């Protein structure tokens, strides 16, 4: 049957658009999404809207509602997470606060109904039916393979962490008051229906979560109901609230979120310290002392502001003329906390080098390129005064799915390799080539070339073609 894509614009529907739903064979059966590539997955997720159209007209700008009458997609969505899954999940050992929140919206405020310790299914079911409470399940990709598969591909596509939460709300109930988030939000309706109201942002592209009182948000600009198989997108800062319509048993939806702290401002904060540090090595003016008692002033004097402005202009000139890899901490944080590659089984095959050993006459290529970052940073084994730059290769192959997006429980150790700065051009060659001969790498000796590719192969990051 035809699918209708409805950009949410003043509550009015736009015309129907034909869609070709991509389908691939998944490990557990037929999938309604295309997992051939990260781009293919995203394109199938927002189908029939074209990717180019989405980023030109909607991303960080306005909501998008996609309502689809597609039985295969509806069945697939429902398989991602069901209310009935809670019984088996509780038997695995889940806890209030860490894994599950129980709450409801009362007179425009969130009322928490969490208990202490381990979640018992019978009590959870009682709160759901008798107290009309919403059950929020945190980061279900830790338990549900298909959500892991989706979110891992989306992290490759966005180059940003992708989290999720499942919300289960009984009929006639509302879990959360009107609020806005600091993430880009994609909502997939899995079971039942949910009535949504969206309001214009009070803070566009907000950097933090905030609850907004009904008296402040005014009338909704968008008002609609999501049904199984539907998708809703809205930018960070969009005020929203949702209720399960009376008369329905319940609603289940999953919120997939991304792009937290991924703005140009964040990237600038990450890039500037290294840029200033490197420039100060060469520019004595940056190493000269600030005026006496400058730190005691209530306001920064005009002369000091002018001096700072001049430094910023010279830094901008240097930035435009460099090809150095600037961002370090953001890249490292992303690879440290992201999902490992999706796999069936225990994943031991990902962590065991296989195939032929690379030699000088070998043709090689990277494996798991979407899970690798290449960056330059100071040698952390040396003192600040003597620090030399090193090239770092970090990867997420050994990350633990069970701690993904779980704060203090997340990974604390990066996995990867480091090389002398003289290896950076050879590493870029491997990075930018679909296949390259080891003997053509830009290193001084054959021994260095063989050592480099063997190190990557041992880390399961390189294969011999």
What is the strand and helix layout of this fold?
Elements: E1 4-6, E2 24-26, E3 29-31, H1 38-45, H2 51-57, E4 64-67, H3 71-80, H4 86-91, E5 100-106, E6 109-112, H5 121-130, E7 134-138, H6 145-158, E8 162-170, E9 179-180, E10 184-191, E11 194-199, E12 210-211, H7 214-217, E13 222-226, E14 231-234, E15 239-243, E16 250-258, H8 264-282, H9 284-287, H10 302-320, H11 329-337, E17 363-366, E18 372-378, E19 389-395, E20 415-420, H12 424-432, E21 436-437, H13 446-458, E22 462-464
Antiparallel strand pairs: 1-4, 2-3, 4-14, 5-6, 5-7, 7-8, 8-16, 9-12, 10-14, 10-16, 11-13, 11-15, 17-21, 17-22, 18-19, 19-20
Helix pairs in contact: 1-6
Could you walk me through the main structural features you see in this protein, from its secondary elements to its overall organization?
This protein has 465 residues and is an alpha+beta fold. The chain contains 13 helices and 22 strands. The strands form 6 sheets. It has a 9-stranded antiparallel sheet with strand order 1-4-14-10-16-8-7-5-6.
Give a quick rundown of the structure.
With 465 residues, the chain is of the alpha+beta class. It is 28% helix and 23% strand. The protein has helices at residues 38-45, 51-57, 71-80, 86-91, 121-130, 145-158, 214-217, 264-282, 284-287, 302-320, 329-337, 424-432, 446-458; strands at 4-6, 24-26, 29-31, 64-67, 100-106, 109-112, 134-138, 162-170, 179-180, 184-191, 194-199, 210-211, 222-226, 231-234, 239-243, 250-258, 363-366, 372-378, 389-395, 415-420, 436-437, 462-464.
């Amino acid at each position: 049957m035809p699918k209708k894509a409805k950009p949410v614009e003043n509550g009015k529907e736009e015309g129907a658009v034909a869609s070709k739903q991509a389908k691939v064979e998944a490990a557990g059966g037929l999938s309604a999404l295309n997992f051939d590539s990260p781009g293919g997955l995203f394109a199938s997720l927002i189908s029939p809207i074209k990717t180019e159209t989405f980023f030109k007209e909607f991303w960080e700008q306005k909501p998008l509602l996609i309502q689809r009458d597609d039985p295969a997609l509806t069945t697939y969505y429902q398989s991602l997470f069901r209310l009935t899954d809670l019984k088996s999940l509780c038997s695995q050992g889940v806890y209030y606060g860490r894994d599950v929140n129980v709450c409801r919206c009362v007179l425009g405020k969130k009322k928490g109904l969490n208990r202490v310790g381990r979640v018992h299914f019978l009590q959870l079911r009682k709160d759901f039916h008798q107290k009309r409470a919403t059950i929020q399940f945190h980061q279900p990709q830790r338990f549900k393979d298909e959500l892991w598969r989706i979110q891992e591909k989306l992290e490759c596509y966005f180059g940003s962490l992708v989290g999720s939460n499942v919300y289960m709300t009984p009929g006639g109930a509302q879990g959360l008051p009107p609020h806005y988030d600091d993430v880009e939000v994609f909502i997939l309706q899995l079971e039942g229906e949910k009535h949504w109201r969206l309001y214009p942002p009070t803070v566009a592209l907000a950097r933090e979560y905030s609850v907004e009182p009904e008296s402040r948000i005014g009338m909704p600009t968008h008002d609609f109901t999501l049904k199984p198989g539907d998708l809703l997108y809205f930018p960070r800062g969009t005020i929203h609230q949702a209720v399960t319509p009376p008369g329905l048993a319940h609603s289940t939806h999953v919120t997939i979120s991304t792009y937290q702290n991924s703005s140009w401002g964040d990237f600038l904060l990450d890039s500037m310290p290294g840029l200033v540090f490197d420039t100060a090595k060469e520019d004595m003016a940056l190493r000269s002392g600030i005026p006496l008692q400058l730190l005691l002033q209530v306001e920064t004097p005009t002369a000091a502001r002018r001096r700072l402005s001049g430094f910023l202009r010279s830094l901008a000139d240097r930035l435009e003329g460099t090809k150095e890899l600037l961002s370090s901490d953001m890249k490292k944080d992303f690879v440290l906390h992201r999902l490992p590659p999706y796999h069936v089984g225990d994943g031991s095959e990902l962590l065991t080098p296989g195939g032929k050993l690379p030699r000088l006459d070998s043709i090689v290529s990277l494996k798991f390129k979407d899970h690798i970052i290449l960056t330059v940073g100071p040698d952390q084994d040396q003192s600040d005064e003597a620090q030399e730059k090193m090239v770092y290769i970090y990867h997420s192959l050994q990350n633990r799915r069970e701690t993904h997006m779980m704060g203090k429980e997340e990974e604390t150790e990066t996995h990867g390799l480091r090389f002398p700065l003289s290896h950076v051009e050879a590493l870029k060659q491997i990075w930018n080539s679909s296949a390259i001969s080891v003997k053509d790498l830009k290193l001084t000796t054959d021994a260095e070339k063989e050592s480099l590719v063997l190190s990557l192969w041992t880390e399961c990051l390189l294969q011999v073609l």
